[in-house]
DNA sequence: CTGAATCCAGATGGATACTG
DNA sequence: CAGTATCCATCTGGATTCAG
């Protein structure tokens, strides 16, 4: 009977799928930088993020913010100013990413040393 | 004097860069699945990984394994069998990713529930 | 100010066939 | 078995312009 092996592989598949789910929500060149920018300041306007995230274009920023909103990681609030301004904020769910981002940051530092600076 | 703000922003930039360093090493459609496959079994052959990672082509597998090797996350060992076989294994450094992968997996499960199943 | 629309170059990745 | 080479469709993302 090969149940043990089968179950083991099933677990492995589930694990891989859930990691992929996470990565799908975070993929895109700027997502993590955008999240960092917002969470760092609490609330953040479109043009602010545009300045924070070095190199991003308004086209990409708009697109990735929309995806983050779809994934319920940020909220978008239009303010009735003249001209209008828009505030982005992390949702509670978005905030749960902070642990992961911290760990990625930590690993990234070690990794960079490993590859370059030795 | 604006030192506090400046330092804060400096910290933020560093953090974003190191996260990006980490993501650079892990980007690519299959990297995490490949790492999962290898670490799950200890050692793994090319054709094994090809089977484990659903949907990957030999072209992509070859390419991403090469990148993982460059980033010193896996080692490649040619065995003198007939025909030759190749074993891939996680380096010590590659193994340090397990925590992050676990967390991503955990977050991915919560996230999927949030977005779909409620 | 906050985007959306268009255009376009370059990267990504699948299918297939081939080599040692 | 473990890749490499080639062809080709699609995706990505920058620059620029336009709109509410």
Please characterize this protein's 3D structure:
The first copy, chain A, has 118 residues and is α+β, with helices and mostly antiparallel strands. Chain A has one domain: Winged helix-like DNA-binding domain superfamily/Winged helix DNA-binding domain (Arc Repressor Mutant, subunit A, Orthogonal Bundle), CATH 1.10.10. Chain A is 65% helix and 13% strand. Chain A has helices at residues 3-26, 31-41, 46-52, 58-70, 92-95, 98-115, and strands at 43-45, 74-79, 85-90. A three-stranded antiparallel beta sheet of chain A has the order 1-3-2. In chain A, a hairpin with a 5-residue loop joins strand 2 and strand 3. The longest helix of chain A has 24 residues, at 3-26. Chain A is globular. The termini of chain A are far apart. The mean pLDDT of chain A is 92. Chains A and B meet through helix 1, helix 2 and helix 6 of A and helix 1, helix 2 and helix 6 of B. Chain B binds a DNA duplex (20 and 20 nucleotides) through residues 28-29, 45-47, 50, 57-63, 78, 81-86.
């Amino acid at each position: 009977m090969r149940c043990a092996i089968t179950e083991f592989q099933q677990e492995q598949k589930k694990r891989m799928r859930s990691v992929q789910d996470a990565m799908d929500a975070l993929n895109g060149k700027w997502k993590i930088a955008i999240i960092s920018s917002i969470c760092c300041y609490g609330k953040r306007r479109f043009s602010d993020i545009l300045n924070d995230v070095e190199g991003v274009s308004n086209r990409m920023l708009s697109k990735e913010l929309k995806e983050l909103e779809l994934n319920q990681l940020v909220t978008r609030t239009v303010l009735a100013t003249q001209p209008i301004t828009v505030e982005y904020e992390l949702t509670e769910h978005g905030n749960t990413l902070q642990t992961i981002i911290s760990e990625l940051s930590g690993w990234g530092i070690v990794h960079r040393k490993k590859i370059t600076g030795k």
